[in-house]
Amino acid sequence: MTTLRIISCVVLLYLQVSSLEAAAFTRKIAFDISPHDPIRCGLRSKSTTKTINHSKLDFSDTSPSRGGASTVAITSSKTMPAIQKKMFNLLSGGVAGTVAACVTNPLEVIRTQLQSSSFSNNSPVMFAQKVFETSGLAGFFNGLQPTLIGTIPARSIYFFAYENSKRKLGKLPSLKEGSVGNSIIAGFSAGIASNTLTNPIWMVKTRIQLMADQSVGQRAYAGYGDAVSSIFKEEGIAGFYKGICASYWGCAEGAIQFLIYEQLKKRNMEKSSKPPSKLQFFCSAAIAKGVAAIATYPHEVARTRLREQAREGVFRYSGMWQTIGLIAKEEGRSGLYGGMGVHLMKVVPNSAIMFLTYEVVNSWLSQYSVKET
Fold this sequence. Notes:
Blueprint: H1 2-26, E1 29-32, H2 38-41, H3 46-53, E2 55-59, E3 71-76, E4 79-81, H4 82-115, H5 124-135, H6 144-169, H7 180-209, H8 224-235, H9 244-249, H10 251-271, H11 278-296, H12 298-306, H13 320-336, H14 340-365, E5 369-371
Parallel strand pairs: 4-5
Antiparallel strand pairs: 1-3, 2-3
Helix pairs in contact: 1-4, 1-14, 4-5, 4-6, 4-14, 6-7, 7-8, 7-10, 10-11, 11-14, 12-13
């Protein structure tokens, strides 16, 4: 029930952000003026003059379909407190990421298990059946609570760090916004900031999602509290940061993704005088994520293996390169790319939704100037 309440709150917050964006567009009102309208007749009252002084009027050509009436578009001068604008900017990526994570959590459970050393040779369908037989539908939502807790801060930090890094680097002559160097460095910076602050959350989530192999001394955790206390007791604070080296290596994925995304967006803008459409944003993000995920996928497997419980009291994997080398030696290419198909099914639409929402909210925020206090 707690999980359902959290999901409901997240969805409501997402809908609220979407409604705010819609409300911003409806402020650009177009209306017909009758022949007796005071503006057209030149009869402007004091109140009418005051309205005109605070609005920009754009008189378009008369339309035959409207009986010769002129259309006036009114765009109000809009302001927003600086703290509120920063908050919307911060949350724009996080809220979208949380909603997408809720929808794709079953794929996350299957993918994580296929990356592990216990079930890497199973097919996704076979493992899905095993999860259903063992835990029912609830088993496909293991690890959802850490995801709900961690996605908003992780994605918010990620997009916030990227946007700020891109803007500050853009002041340098050799790293203008939209350049390859700017995108790569900003992408790395965003990934490092996000992973450093949220790694403990993802460590607990992975442990909960992995099915325990009791034949080698692993045990199933009774809950999130049990997982946290057990990791701390047996592995110390360092236990919560297992896999972080692989996550840092995975920052290359974010850098490649942002690089491709920015180049695709730039190309779309050059082809047309109009801003890119929502479909173009969505497709650009999906392509960028797909290419980046395939190019860097082995780090995902390495990270999962590093976060496994000990087998017969021994942790087989001690570092990212040692892990990748051991997997390549014992399992070959299939081990390094285990679960990649399910991974792409999860992350490509997830990322496309996040980037689209982020661009839409940022577009809405750009209409507001900061209100001086």
